[in-house]
Amino acid sequence: MSKRLGVTVSRQIMDSQKLHPEATGELSGLLNELIVAGKIISAEVNMAGLADILGQSGKVNIQGETVQKLDDFANATIKRRMEQCGYICVMASEEEEEIIPVLDGYEGKYTLAFDPLDGSSNIDVNVSIGTIFSVHRKLSDGVKGTEADLLQKGSLQVAAGYIIYGSSTMLVYTTGEGVHGFTLDPSVGEFFLSHPDIRIPAHSKYYSVNEAYTNYWFDSTRKYVDYLKEIDSETGRPYSLRYIGSLVADFHRNLITGGIFLYPRDRKNTTKPEGKLRLLYEAAPMALLVKEAGGVAITDDGRDILEIVPESLHQRVPLIIGSREDVETAKKFYLS
Ligand code: P6P
Questions:
Q1: Is the CB of 55 under 6 A from ligand 1?
Q2: What residue's CA is closest to ligand 1, atom 16?
Q3: Per-residue pLDDT tens digits of the chain, which is 336 residues long
Q4: Residue among 227, 293, 305 nearest 264 (CA)
Q5: What are the residue ranges of helices labelled H in the chain?
Q6: N or C: less crowded end of the chain, CB within 10 Å?
Q7: Distance of CA 16 to CAs 12, 28, 175, 263, 294, Å?
Q8: pTM
């Protein structure tokens, strides 16, 4: 199909807006601004190997992780663009301990939580990384957004998605009417619809978990993974292990091919008793995406990720997410 005939993401967003006569266009405006930030980050990520932006900035973020220069760039790009877009009232970033205000006079009715560049430890080795975002409606009175406006459960998200910077740059998002994937054509600077109405296969043969932690796992995780490794041709076992160590890359592969991703609690994470991944801007947006695509996301004690009310911005949560039948099987091991 000629590039000129492809459905652009702006067109898709407008079509979705038309389904809601009461819509004011603010969510559409928010998404379009976020997409511009994604294009800027994509250009920088793709140039990183050439410019002197590789390597580390020498700073350490609130997670205690060394901050890569591209992390700084991605975080600043999203903050600068969104603080003056007029559609949001407050932000939260994986890179910043406190809430991020918007410019006076530019307050809007939504909130934005984001991980500007997840998987950044993979930057220097050319492994796919990504931006993850989550949007809620403002609940508090007054003009300025508050931390409480951000601390809402995932089922109340009005939009969620990610931009994956890989062999191509893709945007995958939902506003509650299915999951749609767009591929960036850098020659024209436009995201074109490439994966309409993505559905995650109900069953798969792939599992994603960091097996280096096997000796730290609690029995439920060990028993489930051992089950996946048993030889049983009738149930398509053993499964194949696919683990990149970049949540967006692992999730994206599983969304397209089917699969289950696990980052459960384990005895290693004594400093992170709830696992490693964060609820607000990693687990919850991915949980909405997978639900909209027909999958499931739970914790390792069977709770629905989308029903967990965050108690703090950077709260961590165990995450079991992916193909519905596979997660349901895993849940039996975790609840037995
Ligand atoms: P581990 C990347 O640092 C990240 O936050 C996620 O993108 C990824 O899924 C996870 O950590 C990998 O963690 O402990 O397996 O290296």
A1: no
A2: 245
A3: 555 568 999 999 888 888 888 888 899 999 999 999 999 999 988 887 666 556 666 667 677 776 668 889 999 999 999 999 999 999 999 999 999 999 999 999 999 999 999 998 888 888 999 999 999 999 999 899 999 999 999 999 999 999 999 999 999 999 999 999 999 999 999 999 999 999 999 999 999 999 999 999 999 999 999 999 999 999 999 999 999 999 999 999 999 999 999 999 999 877 778 899 999 999 999 999 999 999 999 999 999 999 999 999 999 999 999 999 999 999 999 999
A4: 305
A5: 9-18, 26-47, 69-82, 147-150, 219-229, 247-257, 284-292, 324-335
A6: N
A7: 6, 9, 8, 33, 19
A8: 0.94
Q: Is 66 in the pocket of ligand 1 (CB under 6 A)?
A: no
Task: Give dist(CA 84, CA 97) in Å, integer.
Answer: 21
Residue 82 has which token pair?
A: 């969104």
- CA quadruple 271, 114, 49, 192: dihedral positive or negative? positive
Count CB neighbours of 219 within 10 A.
9
Name the region of 235 (left: φ>0; alpha: ψ -120 to 50; beta: rest): alpha
- What's the per-residue H, E or C state across 79-94? HHHHCCCCCEEEEEEC
Q: Work out the widest C-alpha separation in the chain, in whole angstroms.
A: 62
Ligand 1: residue of 210, 246, 262 to mutate (most ligand atoms within 8 A of CB) is 246
**Is 246 touching ligand 1 by the criterion CB < 6 Å?**
yes
Where do the domains of the chain lie, and which CATH numbers do they carry?
Answer: 3-195 (3.30.540.10), 206-335 (3.40.190.80)
150 within 8 A of 92, measured Cβ to Cβ: yes
